Amino acid sequence: MAVLVNGSEITLSGSVGDLWFEDGFTAAEVIAALAQVGDGNDVTIRLNSGGGIATEGSAIHAAIARHKGTKTIVIEGVAASAGSLIAMAGDIVEMALGSTMMIHDPSGLTFGTAADHEVTLRALNAMADAFAGVYAAKSGRTAAQCRADMRLELWLTPEEAVAQGYADRVGAAANDNEPAEAVAAFDYRIYAHAPKELVALARKHDWRMSAGRSPAASAAPTPDKEKPMPPEQTTGASTPEDIEAARRTATSAAAEIATICADAGVPAMTAQLIREGVTADQARARACQAKDIRMAVDLARKKDTKIEANAADQYIAQGKSLDQVRAALFERFVAQEEQTAINPTSPLPSGQEGPKSATASMQRQLKRAGMSQEA
Fold first, then answer.
1. What is the pairing mode between strands 9-13 and 3-6?
2. Which of 3, 90, 126, 215 has the least CB density, counted as fewest CB within 10 Å?
3. 86 φ, ψ to 5°?
4. Model's pTM, two decimal places?
5. Per residue of the chain (375 residues), what is the pLDDT tens digit?
6. Do residues 322 and 289 make contact, with C-beta atoms less than 8 angstroms apart?
7. 263-297 burial by CB neighbour count: b if 16+ within 10 A, else e?
8. What is the distance between the alpha carbons of residues 357 and 216, in angstroms, rounded to a whole number?
9. Which residues face 72 on adjacent strands?
10. What is the DSSP letter of 50?
11. Which domains does the chain have, with CATH numbers?
12. Kindly report the CA angle at 363 between 358 and 367, in degrees rounded to 5?
């Protein structure tokens, strides 16, 4: 179990996120564990994680931070990448003897056009800036200083973490002759500046990430664990051959959805569609609509450069339909035209007056651009 609750103590061990190829813990599981402790009660969280999905780490950090009781986070083994982001939610952060902490920039993997890569670049920079703010809030350093540490991929001993404000204290030496907490099994070879001892452990025990796995703080969508099928569908699937066949079917379906999303130019939708368990036809319809939304926004931005570069991503994330997006863009255009129409420094062309003229003008322009908005 990656999440264990014992009274007012929670243990989080493994990768951050629901990764089908290794044990991990999710924001939903952490929220449930905190609820079991009780929102007003103090809680001790024992953390041992080499990292995982960056956005999942951010969600877990937020869940712990809003817990009303005092949060003591004890780092046992390692808190690296998304793991260290989670640690920053503690009112008290304690580094056990022999533990390590690492902070760095999130990373991601994109399949697609140059525009797709540019979207990923903007997303990574936005996340890195946001995470720097989290580290700054805990450490008392500036966000710029924390971002510089992240770019270096900074590895810290307990004493160094305390000195730089990322932790509050070093745990006392144990006198029970018990062995120190082992670091979480993780392929530390993927990190650029991991301590050689951790790299040696990963090599010795052949700790590996799945093929195609991006680094631990990856912002790239990562496939979820295969969800168990309902009992009536698993009847008779008790032999290794049947289980392997079911696994291959699920993997094939996920690969088909990934291809559909990549072909439509919306690879970022892959994980969400797999998570929802949609069919290939449903995925194709959703991906095509997302592609159309991107095209509509791109056309709109040629008219109004004030429209945010990530507006299409926001509309897609909000579950907007193409018609809803067109309506929203139309309203923005009309508002802009109305402002222009009543601007005393810009004389109105002959025969054009006020909002009605602005609306009519905008409808004509949208029709020419192939984005006609019916009343």
1. antiparallel
2. 126
3. -60, -40
4. 0.52
5. 578 999 999 999 998 987 665 678 999 999 999 999 988 899 999 999 989 889 899 999 999 999 999 999 999 989 999 999 999 999 999 999 989 999 999 988 888 889 888 998 998 999 999 999 999 999 999 999 999 999 999 999 999 999 999 999 998 765 455 544 555 555 555 555 555 566 666 666 665 544 333 333 444 344 344 444 444 443 333 455 555 555 556 666 777 887 887 788 777 677 667 767 778 888 888 888 888 888 888 888 887 888 888 888 788 877 788 888 888 888 877 776 666 555 555 555 554 455 555 556 556 655 555 555 554
6. yes
7. ebbbbbbbbbbbeeebeeeebbebbebbbbbbebb
8. 55
9. 44, 92
10. -
11. 3-205 (3.90.226.10), 238-375 (no CATH)
12. 150
For helices 240-263 and 280-303, the axis angle rounded to 10 degrees is 20
- Beta strands at 154-156 and 100-103: parallel, antiparallel or unpaired: antiparallel
For 23-35, give one letter per residue: b (16+ CB within 10 A) or e. Answer: ebbbbebbbebbe
Give the pair of three-digit tokens for residue 205. 């025990």
